[in-house]
User: Which sequence fits this backbone?
């Protein structure tokens, strides 16, 4: 669940990935549903930019030894950018990743791990 001043974002189901994010106002009325690209998108993490302009999902693609990061427009649900991050070290395939979206710079930073975090990649999007 992601909380903003006037909105609450949460998955359609808490027990499995469905590829949908429900966005409600603070009174509990559904404002919109964002459909991600693919039902399992977001299974490894869903993140929001500080002001709620963008949603990012991350997903491990085992056959490609890569993390796939997708940036979505939070209003219309369209994909703004997709980036594959190839991983050379096996240990980064099972570590929880975190995605930081810097709205003012249109930059995405991906780190892995809890506690001491390891930088994996950064990229710009438009």
Assistant:
């Amino acid at each position: 669940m992601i909380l903003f001043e006037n909105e609450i974002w949460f998955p359609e189901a808490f027990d499995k990935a469905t590829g949908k994010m429900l966005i409600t106002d603070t009174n509990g009325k559904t404002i919109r549903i964002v459909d991600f690209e693919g039902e399992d998108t977001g299974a490894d993490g869903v993140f929001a930019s500080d002001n709620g302009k963008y949603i990012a999902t991350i997903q491990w693609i085992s056959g490609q030894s890569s993390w796939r990061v997708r940036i979505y427009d939070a209003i219309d649900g369209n994909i703004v950018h997709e980036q594959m991050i190839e991983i050379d070290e096996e240990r980064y395939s099972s570590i929880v990743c975190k995605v930081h979206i810097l709205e003012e710079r249109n930059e995405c930073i991906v780190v892995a791990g809890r506690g001491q975090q390891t930088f994996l990649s950064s990229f710009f999007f438009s």
Summary: The chain is about 0% helix and 50% strand. The longest strand covers residues 54-61. The two ends are 26 Å apart (CA to CA).
